[in-house]
Each structure stands twice: as C-alpha cells, then as structure tokens.
Amino acid sequence: MSAAFAEARAGVRLSDAQRLDWLRLIRSESVGPQTFRALINRYRGAGAALAALPEIAARRGKPIRICGIDEAEREMEALRRAGGCLVALGEPDYPATLRAIDAAPPVICVRGDLSALRRPMVSFVGSRNASAAGLAFTERLTRDLAAAGFVIVSGLARGIDARAHRSSLGSGTIAVLAGGLDKVYPSEHAALAEEIVERGALVTEMPMGWEPRGRDFPRRNRLVSGLAYGTIVVEAARKSGSLITARFALEQGRELFAVPGSPLDPRAEGANDLLRQGATLCARSQDVITMLEPMAKTGLPDGPLFRETGQPEPTEPLWDELEPVYAGPTPETEPGHEFDEPAAAKPPEAPAEPAPSRIQTGGGARGLVESLLGPSPVAIDDLVRASGAPVPEVQVALLELELDGRIERHGGNLVSLATK
C-alpha cells in the first residue's frame, strides 16, 4: 500500500497536512462526496488530487474553483475557536454507521462529546407542527430508548425534533445541522444546541459560516438517517421533509419505524402511508429495541473506504450527486423553504416548545391549544407541557373550545378535537 493511499485506511488519523488537503478538496467547486471518492481512488491521495484538478478542468473546458490553503486554514481556525473539530472519513471518531452509507461526507465538523458518535444511535423525525399527543409519545419513546443505551439523533427542528433532543439531554443526543456549526437553525434553538453539546454533539458536513438554504435540509436528512441503525417517523404529513429522511433510511438499508396516527389527522397521513408500504409499526419502545439491539451488538458490515485499484479519471456523471459545498458566500435561508409539511396540510402554526413569549393572556392561548390537539385523545397535563402556557390559560382555552363544540372530553382527563 502506498504512503499516500494509507491516509484512507479505517482507524488511521490523518496528519495535519493531510487533514488540510482533505478539507481543501471537498470544499473545492464541483467536488461532492462521490467525486471526492473517485478522485482519491484515481490519484491515491487528496494532495495529488488537488494538484490534478487544474489539468482536469482544462481538458474539460470547465473551470474549477479550488479551495485555497488560506481559506481552509481559516475554516479550521474558526472551527477551533468554536470548540469544534474536523473528523475525516475512516478516522476512529468517524461514526461507523455513517461511513457505511453511499456518499458519506469525507469530513464532518463536530462540536461536543465525540464518544457519543461511537454509541448505537436511533433517529427521530416528525412534524414541526406536532400535536401534543405526538410530542408526549416522542418524549416517552426517547427516554425508554435512552435507558436502553441508544443515543437519540434528530435535526434540531421545531416540534418532534426538539422534543426528542430535550427528552434525551441527560443521556446524550446528537443534532445534525443543515448549516455550519455557528449557524444553528432555527435560531430560537441556539440555547438547546448549547445544552446538547454538554452530553452529546452537534454534527454537520457544512463549513463554518454556511447559512442553511432550503436545499440543504434534505442533504442533512441523509445524515440523520445515516448515523442511526433505525429511523422513527412520529408524525408526518404527505410530502413532508420527514418522508425524505424515511426514504434515505430505506436506501441506506436501515430499519424504518412509523408511529400510527388517526386517519383524520393530516399530520399522521405520511406515517400511516409508510406503514401501508411496509414500515415497522412503532407503538412502544420495545418494538424498536427488539429490532435494533441485535444490529447494535454486531454493527453494520464494513465496506471498503476507498478501493486501492486504479480508477478512471472522474467523468461528468459523477457530478450528478448532492450539490457540492465550496468556499464562498451563501444566500440567507428563504422563509418557507425548510422542507416542512406543505402549507395545505399544516394545522394552525404552533411555536417551538416551550415558548412562553408567544402565549398571550386570557383567551389568546386558544389558537395554540387547538393547534396541539388532534383526533387522538391527549392528557391535559401533556397539553399544558406542550403549549408552555399556564394551566389556567389552557383550562380557559379548553372551556371556550368546548362551548364552541370544537373538542370532546374523555375519561382519564383526556381531550381531543371533535370529529363530528
């Protein structure tokens, strides 16, 4: 094995010079994960691949902007100042589950406890406009799975993601970002991100300073599913971003679980469709533990990081992959382009939990309480927790809704939206 190719061996830490070359290569224009792999295969190292890029560009008549040494060093320094580090594919701290997927990111930026990346993981996805019942079930499920030794992975979004993270802070949780480590989205979850760092980690493949765009969220979703042995869809409307993650999980050969919901609730349509298509029903934590514990014990099959046989020079089809990331300015995130549920399927907008600043006095909590309700009965205590509103305000809101015939009360202090 040549010295240059040895940088790609599993379990071998890169030298500082090699790490800088890897970062420069993946940050160069038109170089995504698949192209990076092809270049390493062909030239036996990132340094040699960088040296070959100008000639490749000249022959193709298509200029390629190569990330400069200064640019890469500035990114490394910014990462260090933020308390993060760069982990390369094949290094001991690189998650084995992520290494096994197609188009695995050659480098990831991590801030927090690296040991969390070596533990078995399960990912949660679901509606940003989640029901109180969905939030309560997510909390119960994450706590049981954490107690069974699993690290909880999600995307730091509002609703199900945030509840999954908050419920597993004490045991370790991993948030995958669509932007750089210094660009937490949504910004209201910046404090939650800091709490996650204490026992878990923030992970991204994007450079420092990268503003997340709508197209970056599906790219992030493949890492949410790729880190985990299985993905759980709690609530998802049809055509929601959660279903993109579910598709990635299936393509990556991971277990896919779906929590059944009322056929009358549009937030459950996507999850119910997944069940009809063969996803494993998740009605309790043991459904997940039984399926994933054997995988966690044996691990996933290890594929070769980079084949040692000579590979042809990259050709145009190799650029037909996830959009590459290269050094340069990025546009601000466009509102409404976060790949959430389509507007027609959304229930009334609910704030991130908890959000006392959004709760008004008197009857102002009514809209929020109604948005958290669905056809499935939910405990009033769970409704109070999900809303972040004082108990008296929730009780007044429920009374108003009941007088208008909008809700039904059930035994055991449960309420639901009226279905008639």
Folded structure, characterized:
- The chain is an alpha/beta fold and 420 residues long.
- It folds into three domains: 13-73, no CATH class; 97-298, 3-Layer(aba) Sandwich (Rossmann fold), CATH 3.40.50.450; 355-417, Winged helix-like DNA-binding domain superfamily/Winged helix DNA-binding domain (Arc Repressor Mutant, subunit A, Orthogonal Bundle), CATH 1.10.10.
- The chain contains 15 helices and twelve strands.
- It has helices at 16-26, 33-43, 46-60, 69-81, 96-99, 132-147, 160-167, 190-199, 216-226, 241-251, 269-276, 285-298, 366-372, 380-387, 391-403, and strands at 84-88, 107-112, 121-125, 151-154, 173-176, 201-204, 230-233, 255-258, 280-281, 378-379, 407-410, 414-417.
- Strand 5 (173-176), helix 8 (190-199) and strand 6 (201-204) form a beta-alpha-beta unit.
- The longest helix is centred in the first third of the chain and has 16 residues, at 132-147.
- The protein is elongated.
Strand order of the largest sheet: 1-2-6-5-4-3-7-8-9
Query: What top-tier CATH class of the largest domain fits best?
Result: Alpha Beta
Q: Supply the number of structural domains.
A: 3
Shape annotation: elongated
Specify the number of helices: 15
**What percentage of residues falls in helices of 4 or more residues?**
25-40%
Please tell me how large the radius of gyration is: 23 Å
Write a brief caption for the model.
By secondary structure, this protein is of the alpha/beta class.
